[in-house]
Design a protein that fits this description.
Length: 313
């Protein structure tokens, strides 16, 4: 079966993924599919840096703003939607451009991960969540390490849903998440992938962009948006998104806006560092260091050459 050409653009937050994706889509007759776990939610435009109509430049963007903030949404659900959208775009004779910073979404899609259909155990999940509230997530991490040390080393202790799922999967099926992931990637990928990843050799330049973006978000109305999202009865998802939960102490009158803004910047910088660490584990990608180029046009020119060489020759 002939593989579907797929251009992937990853990288840390504020590195310029949106601009590069749009400019390449314009030149390669493409449409963008978001790979951002927070941009899928409605009402979170500013805080998740969803591209504006001006930034999209008429290029269709998919899988943005379709889920309610309280709606749980799994990697498996994302992959199913993204696969269908990529097939649809390809069927219209256009190039699918997958762009975003959620490495797990990207890896699961392009590696054609087959997700377990094992039954869920909601009672067990609630029991584990209650234990985490009482004893902390480290308690769950220690349990996971006792039977699946590789998953325990890989999963961020702050990612409670992932920790709970790893334990649930083992208790329900008797198979560890590590073994499941190994078996889930036996099916070949249906995509011919060209993977570009943005980064900076001088990390301080990326951090400067992050700090500037947070300032711009506040000028654009982040406070009002955060208040609306956090006040929703089903807005639990917003507490996972950087840029919202950090404003809660400000709304309570506990800290100044300046202090809240600095916390957002600090957490965003930490998140960018984790994103870079994730993408460094990917084997077949092309790093594009933004600060290697005198301007965006020079970077774009190199990116175009790579795309042409990998997808069209």
């Amino acid at each position: 079966m002939q593989k579907i050409p797929l251009l992937v653009i990853g990288g840390p937050t504020a590195s310029g993924k949106t601009k590069l994706a749009v400019e390449l889509a314009l030149r390669q007759n493409g449409e963008v599919v978001s790979a951002d776990s927070m941009q899928i939610y409605k009402g979170m435009q500013i805080g998740t840096a969803k591209p504006t109509p001006q930034e999209m430049q008429g290029v269709p963007h998919h899988l943005m703003g379709f889920a309610e903030p309280g709606q749980s949404f799994s990697v498996a659900e994302y992959v199913d939607l993204a696969k269908a959208k990529i097939q649809e775009i390809h069927g219209r004779g256009k190039l699918p451009v997958l762009a975003g910073g959620t490495g797990l979404y990207i890896r699961s899609l392009i590696s054609n991960t087959q997700f377990s259909q094992a039954e869920n155990d909601s009672a067990l999940r609630e029991e584990l969540a209650a234990r985490a509230r009482q004893e902390g997530s480290e308690s769950l991490l220690q349990e996971l390490a006792s039977f699946d040390p590789k998953s325990a080393a890989r999963i961020d202790p702050r990612n409670l849903p992932r920790l709970i799922r790893a334990i649930e999967l083992y208790r329900v099926t008797g198979v560890t998440m590590t073994e499941h992931l190994k078996n889930s990637r036996l099916e070949p990928s249906p995509y011919q992938v060209c993977f570009l990843c943005l980064n900076f050799r001088d990390r301080s330049k990326l951090y400067e962009r992050i700090n500037l973006r947070v300032d711009e978000m506040l000028e654009q109305g982040l406070l009002k948006e955060a208040e609306q999202v956090l006040n929703r009865p089903d807005g639990a998802t917003a507490l996972q998104a950087i840029g919202y939960k950090e404003l809660l102490p400000y709304f309570r009158g506990e800290i100044s806006l300046e202090q809240a803004a600095e916390t957002i910047k600090q957490e965003t910088r930490r998140y960018a560092k984790r994103q870079i660490t994730w993408f460094k584990r990917e084997e077949q990608l092309h790093w594009l260091f933004v600060d290697d180029y005198p301007n965006f046009d020079a970077l774009l020119s190199v990116a175009q050459e790579i795309v042409r060489g990998e997808l069209y020759e």
